[in-house]
# Entry
Amino acid sequence: MKAIITLTVLFLTLAILTSCNKDEITCSNEEIFCYYVNKEEFNKTGPTIDNFLKDLKKKLSDEEKLERLVDWLKCKSCVSNAEILCVSCIKTNPPQSEIKVWFIINGQIKTQILDIIMDDPLRFRTFHD
# Structure
């Protein structure tokens, strides 16, 4: 009976550990990113966003890359929320995607739309209202 319980616990532990494969997002460049956000110079965060995007794994789909970007944005202390509005919905060459970002600036929420160029690698385009 002890052997069955031990094997069951071992099996469940193994199942839990192997199901947690999701790549962890490192909340990098918080200080420089939020510095520009607090000054409301959103487009100056572009190089920081590009640095994050260029390090994403090539095997990820475009939507997965955008999801990783949203997770990275949401981990920042100056961001209260972020969500993908559309994937490759702006018909340029290459197409662009949009992410809505809720920034926290002096205790107030300010929203901006982040445009991402769907190239390889994905690239920052601009922020706009």
Summary: Residues 6-22 have pLDDT under 50 and may be disordered. The two ends are 65 Å apart (CA to CA). Residues 2-19 form the longest helix (18 residues).
